[in-house]
Design a protein that fits this description.
By secondary structure, the chain is an alpha/beta fold. It has 10 helices and 23 strands.
């Protein structure tokens, strides 16, 4: 079926087209036109001047709609992925917090199966842990956190075909070797839940770690050790010129001035937006999957309020927060929500931008950046 979305303010890799059209067929973009001349025989969709931008790509998300990816079931994966889809996430990398081996194996089985389905939004699995620094556990379950086990992580990577990213604290024993192994396997190695200082970050970077997990959260900043000052993880990541960062852009985990700082220092090409959303996102049931977690002030926290535990944000909220609250141009915000995560996660060949040959993953947003429509592989889902 040929579909023409016309009269849109369309973001392309070359910039905005005002009053243009996108033509899709069989799930792909077949043409991006600079005009709104109607094509005979196509289904016509009037964008009414809306912003037309690429679908969001979520590379760090734990659940939604009452389902947590840690459950490992098909039902949980499908429900959570669909919950985020209708809020603008057209490609998703389900994330597991620190988990036991049986939990990881169950999720791997489910994820691998769903990745093979036609028109799936599930692109691969992301493991956040369990190889972390206990001092920076945050909302991770401390009883599950452990040091890298080479036999375990090789089994997970080599016996399943879904692994796309793994987060590790680079200062713990075996982490550098694991990062080197992940990089060789084409899996994104990220540093997170860490007390790493400059020498640890530098060693990890040289070994193949290429991403900082939820930048500014669960990591050290500039600090004193007795009377001497030390660069923390944050400053060290800034100094690794080609290390990517992801930021939880809900306006709470990282306040607007720091969101602008990351944007100015790391730039559009190195900054990805994430929700780090939990199962309670877009859900009437306020009971979190993790009983230690409460929802308060529009965010998830540990019940003792010692740490933030994740967000209840969706892709449309991330875009609004960055553009309206942080004051960053929408074109750059969209790139950080789509193009940059697509490049980091290795799917830029088919997703992340609006151009001929790419998957027809398209968002329409009004002048106030409220979501008007979501197209996934050319199909209207909202």
């Amino acid at each position: 079926m040929l579909t023409q979305i016309f009269n849109g303010h369309i973001l392309t890799p070359q910039g905005w087209i005002d009053g243009g059209s996108i033509v899709t067929e069989n799930g792909r973009i077949v043409e991006v036109k600079k005009d709104s001349n109607l094509i005979e025989g196509a289904e016509h969709v009037d964008a009414e001047g809306s912003h037309v931008i690429p679908g969001g790509i979520e590379m760090h998300v734990h659940g939604g709609g009452g389902s947590d990816f840690m459950e490992g079931t098909r039902e949980a994966f499908v429900n959570a992925a669909h919950t985020h889809l209708v809020h603008g996430t057209t490609a998703i990398f389900p994330t597991l917090s620190s988990s036991t081996l049986p939990m990881i194996e169950a999720a791997c089985e489910t994820c691998s199966s769903l990745m093979k389905e036609k028109d799936t939004t599930i692109m691969g699995l992301h493991l956040e842990g369990p190889y972390f620094n206990l001092k920076k556990a945050g909302a991770q379950m401390p009883e599950i956190i452990r040091e890298p086990d080479e036999k375990e992580y090789r089994h997970i990577v080599e016996d399943y075909d879904c692994m796309r990213r793994w987060d590790v604290a680079p200062e713990i024993p075996g982490a550098v070797e694991m990062g080197r192994y992940l990089a060789q396997k084409g899996i994104v190695a990220a540093i997170g839940h860490t007390a790493a200082e400059y020498e640890h970050v530098e060693a990890a970077y040289k070994a193949g770690y290429s991403l900082a997990t939820h930048f500014y959260n669960a990591m050290t900043g500039f600090h004193n050790v007795r009377e001497y000052k030390h660069a923390g993880t944050v400053e060290s990541v800034y100094l690794m010129e080609n290390m990517d960062v992801e930021v939880i852009a809900d306006g709470i985990h990282v306040p607007a001035p720091i969101l602008r700082l990351v944007y100015q220092c790391k730039g559009v090409e190195r900054t990805a937006l994430i929700a780090d959303a939990l199962a309670v996102t877009a859900c009437e049931n306020a009971q979190a999957f993790d009983p230690r977690v409460i929802i308060e002030d529009g965010v998830c926290k540990l019940s003792d309020r010692s740490a933030l535990a994740g967000s209840v944000a969706t892709m449309d909220r991330l875009i609004r927060t960055m553009a309206i609250t942080a004051g960053i141009p929408l074109a750059d915000v969209s790139r950080m929500a789509s193009e940059t995560p697509a490049r980091i996660m290795g799917i830029l060949d088919r997703k992340g931008t609006l151009e001929k040959g790419k998957d027809a993953d398209i968002l329409l947003m009004d002048a106030d950046l409220n979501l008007k429509a979501v197209y996934s592989m050319g199909k209207l889902v909202k």
